[in-house]
Automatic annotation (TrEMBL):
CDD domains according to UniProt: PBP2_Bug_TTT (cd07012)
Position of the signal peptide: 1-29
Keyword Signal: yes
Record's keyword annotation contains Manganese: no
Keywords: Receptor, Signal
Family stated for the protein in its record: Belongs to the UPF0065 (bug) family.
Protein name from the UniProt record: Tripartite-type tricarboxylate transporter receptor subunit TctC
Coiled-coil boundaries: none
Pfam families: TctC
Organism: Pigmentiphaga kullae
InterPro entries linked to this entry: BUG, Bug_dom1, TAT_signal
Length: 323
């Protein structure tokens, strides 16, 4: 009898041990964060890096742990996106991006299969710019020059299939001109190329171009939007210049994403931190001062916006055939 009881107790203990091993150990998610967090930035030297580094600083304050920035540029953001997506879904790797919606629409990435949204941060319009002593002063001048010199007028972007590249291709189709696209690894390199005369023009977001405009080293000639910017009130919109079909592709939005499958307590902690950062402090001030729009915080809005963007770009590529 005693032997049977002992056997039953041993079996029960073994079963309990197996069950416990199949569950997350207490404290792994609940004690988050217990070590430094990495924030991946998939574009170098542009608004994404500016915003990402600032967000990392604020996230570090809120979480009470170090946030390490890793810049992984290339392939239109896909290299950084995949690098983050392949990390464990434990909250210790995040990525600042717009969900790579253009790449998802063209089958080079799958946002919803690989990432999940934590929060949206800001939307930023692009400006077409030239060097201050350029004879091109308006978009009309720009188009007329391109028509007189087909295949000679160059413009830069931060990589193939990025927003600036798409804007340039759309302008080519709308205006009936031929431009030369030159991709760079970051906005800083692109800006320097224009200042040196290596590149004729480029597209940068309102936030990134601001210090160059204030320092009179770059001059914007059009904002790719249907509304003028509060911080660049004298710069005409692309719609005013007669190219309304460029407006929908003329801005980028940015948010924080994580590898798919975060434990609920970890995601809750990150979403709560994002709300704190969103409501007050340097990130909100940066967005306002750069002429951007502060977007709704939280994963619901970011997820909805990601899906809307993917749908938009799929339709756009079908209609325009842009690649």
């Amino acid at each position: 009898m005693n032997t049977n009881i002992a056997r039953r107790r041993l079996l029960a203990a073994a079963t309990a041990g197996v069950a416990a091993g199949a569950l997350p150990l207490p404290g792994l998610a609940q004690d988050y964060p217990s070590k430094p967090v990495t924030l991946v930035i998939p574009y170098q030297g542009g608004i994404t890096e500016q915003l990402g580094r600032l967000y990392a600083t604020e996230l570090e304050k809120v979480l009470g742990k170090s946030v390490i920035v890793e810049v992984k540029p290339g392939a239109g953001g896909v290299i950084g996106g995949k690098y983050a997506a392949r990390a464990p879904a434990d909250g210790y790797t995040l990525v600042v991006t717009s969900g790579l919606t253009q790449e998802t629409a063209q089958g080079r990435f799958d946002t919803f299969a690989e990432l999940e949204a934590i929060t949206a941060i800001t939307s930023q319009a692009f400006l077409l710019y030239v060097k201050p002593d350029s004879p091109i002063t308006t978009l009309k001048d720009y188009v007329e020059y391109a028509k007189r010199h087909p295949g000679k007028l160059s413009y830069g972007s931060v990589g193939p299939n990025t927003s600036a590249h798409i804007i340039g291709q759309t302008l080519e189709k709308s205006a009936g001109i031929k431009l030369v696209h030159v991709p760079y690894k970051g906005g800083g390199a692109q800006a320097l190329a224009v200042m040196s005369g290596e590149l004729a023009s480029g597209y940068l977001t309102s936030a990134f171009i601001k210090p160059y405009v204030e320092g009179k080293t770059l001059r914007p000639i059009a904002i790719v939007s249907d509304q003028r910017s509060e911080i660049y009130p004298d710069v005409p919109t692309i719609v005013e210049a007669g190219y309304p079909d460029l407006a929908p592709v003329g801005s980028s939005w940015f948010g924080i994403f994580a590898p798919k499958g975060l434990p609920a307590p970890v995601k809750d902690a990150l979403v709560k931190a994002a709300g704190t950062i969103h409501d007050a402090g340097p990130v909100a001030a940066f967005v306002r001062n750069s002429g951007g729009v502060l977007l709704t915080a939280g994963p619901a809005y970011a997820t909805k916006k990601t899906q809307e963007d993917i749908d938009f770009w799929k339709t756009f590529y079908r209609t325009h055939g842009t690649k």
